[in-house]
Specification:
The chain is of the alpha+beta class. It has helices spanning about 30-60, 75-80, 85-95, 115-120, 125-140, 250-270, 290-295, 325-340, 345-350, 355-360, 365-390, 395-400, 415-430, 445-455, 460-470, and strands at about 1-5, 5-10, 20, 100-105, 140-145, 150, 155, 160-165, 170, 185-190, 195-200, 205-210, 215-225, 230-235, 275-280, 315, 405. It has an eight-stranded mixed beta sheet, covered by helices on one side. Strands 8-5-14 form a three-stranded antiparallel beta sheet. Helix 3 (about 85-95) packs across helix 5 (about 125-140) and helix 6 packs antiparallel against helix 8 (about 325-340).
Length: about 500
């Protein structure tokens, strides 16, 4: 959640700021800070956490029932439970699966910047980034803390950790423009219902304890040395007012319509999906209601009904057709796909004989949406890596504002068509082949690096110079890399 100096407002397009009092200046006395956290930040955090809880339920497909009539039977409640499908979770997953960082590069350097990229990998960010992206896409925003740490071997290495917005609240002077928050509050549940509250500012990490009966205690502080509040905000779609709607909350009305349509179909399927046999004018069918019910139970699909009374008439009541309900559900899913900028076949499952061009056109809106998310999330990753470089003592990398993360190409394309197109680009346009390797579908940055290292292994000149090195160890000059390690004779571009 984000807060302004004089207001605390959740990241929601429809939300309006609510006055909550004055923002404390930096360096506020411990007692005053605890009072501000207890009376201002904590109530705002709980309100925002409840909003995010509802969003979380929709992502998991465990949302509230669309309607529960008074006196609903167990049978009806079961149908309501069956009608819920996590469509909005699929929306989040589809977008999140297009977002994977595979490098951190600068125009001033070849390949990944060694220091920050080593910190990225040391923190396991190749996996942790997935949860950060999914939180930002689903809730609208997520956080990452960057704090000083020591790696094995007594090496100074920043600690980077993603934080769910359900466990953190950040206060900004201008939430639409500020890069760093003024304050950030992180909660960590403890045993016995107590909660450890960590409040980060530009200089310290303050530790407080909130007990289950709402009693607060200030525990102490520790200097972090970042010079800013070391919390980076990842946003799905930030506007100038600081609102960041996610990919769930705006589409809840459409998803509710789908649940309603599915419930109606299940109700009809359960109660009216078979023919009803009728008989009128039958005398002496049964002497009691209980006997009549027993006779009805004996009827089977293959039975022939015969009556002695000539006035008896047999008939049927047709079942209710389900096609209209199925078509309505397809229409609702197509509406969700349209407003969420997703290919409709992802939600309807209707994909028949589409050419590569037609499939690319169907995914065009998703490609544009994913690119916008990469710009927003990529800037946050670069911000976090620059701060990590500062904490690691790498001033040059910390000041490199041109450095950017790179994203793995996850577009679904035909391998044969991609290789044919790239081959023509190399042949007809003169583009170096090594620069095209990373564009092959399914190829990672590590694959490209390995290919570059072994690009000239079979080259006759490379083999001759390696043999020369072996036969003349005292020549005073070594030609080419060690054949046991692989590598090219020239410094090939690292992609």
């Amino acid at each position: 959640m984000t807060a302004t100096l004089g207001s605390v407002a959740p990241f929601a397009a429809a939300a309006q700021p609510e006055p909550v009092g004055e923002q404390p200046p930096q360096g506020l006395a411990d007692a005053k800070l605890l009072e501000y956290v207890r009376d201002v930040m904590w109530p705002a955090f709980e309100a925002e956490r409840e909003r995010l809880r509802v969003i979380d339920l929709w992502m998991k497909g465990d949302q509230a029932d669309s309607r529960v009539p008074n006196g609903a039977t167990k049978e009806l409640k079961n149908l309501l439970a069956l009608s819920k499908t996590p469509w909005l979770g699929l929306v989040v997953t589809t977008i999140a699966q297009t977002l994977y960082v595979d490098g951190y590069k600068s125009p001033e350097a070849k390949g990944n910047i060694p220091g920050p990229w080593a910190t990225w990998n040391a923190n396991g960010m190749e996996v942790r980034q997935l949860a950060i992206h999914r939180g930002a896409v689903g809730y609208g925003y997520s956080y990452e803390t960057v704090l000083p740490g020591i790696a094995p071997g007594n090496v100074q290495r920043a600690v980077m950790r993603g934080v769910s917005p359900k466990r953190m609240l950040a206060v900004y002077e201008d939430p639409g423009a500020d890069e760093w928050p003024e304050l950030a509050m992180k909660v960590e549940p403890q045993r016995g219902g107590a909660i450890l509250v960590k409040v980060l500012d530009h200089q310290f990490v303050h530790r407080m304890l909130r007990t289950s009966d709402d009693k607060w205690t200030y525990l102490g502080l520790q200097e972090h040395g970042a010079g800013v509040c070391p919390v980076v905000r990842f946003t799905n779609m930030l506007d100038l007012e600081g609102n960041t709607p996610g990919e769930v909350e705006p589409f809840i009305p459409v998803a509710s319509r789908i649940d309603k349509t599915e419930y109606d179909r299940l109700s009809v399927q359960h109660h009216n999906s078979w023919k009803v046999w009728t008989a009128s004018g039958m005398a002496n069918f049964a002497e009691s209601e209980e006997e009549a019910n027993l006779k009805k139970l004996k009827l089977r699909m293959g039975d022939i009904l015969i009556a002695e009374d000539p006035d008896t008439k047999f008939g049927t009541l047709d079942e209710t057709g389900l096609k209209g309900f199925i078509d309505a559900a397809d229409a609702d899913r197509e509406s969700l796909a349209a407003v969420a900028q997703l290919p409709s076949h992802l939600l309807t499952g209707k994909l028949v004989n589409l050419s590569a061009e037609a499939l690319a056109a169907a995914r065009a809106s998703l490609t544009q949406k994913a690119y916008e998310r990469k710009v927003s999330l990529g800037a946050a990753h670069s911000q976090a890596l620059r701060l990590a470089a500062k904490l690691d003592g790498d001033i040059e990398a910390a000041q490199d504002v041109y450095a950017r993360v790179t994203w793995q190409d996850v577009e679904v394309r035909s391998l044969a068509q991609a290789v044919d197109a790239l081959g023509k680009a190399a042949q007809m346009l003169g583009i170096p082949r090594q620069f095209l390797w990373s564009r092959i579908p399914g190829v990672t940055a590590d694959d490209v690096k390995e290919w570059v290292d072994h690009a000239l292994d079979d080259d006759p000149l490379t083999q001759y110079l390696r043999d020369f090195d072996k036969k003349n160890p005292a020549a005073g000059q070594s030609f080419g890399p060690d054949p046991t390690e692989g590598g090219a004779l020239y410094e090939a571009p690292e992609l």
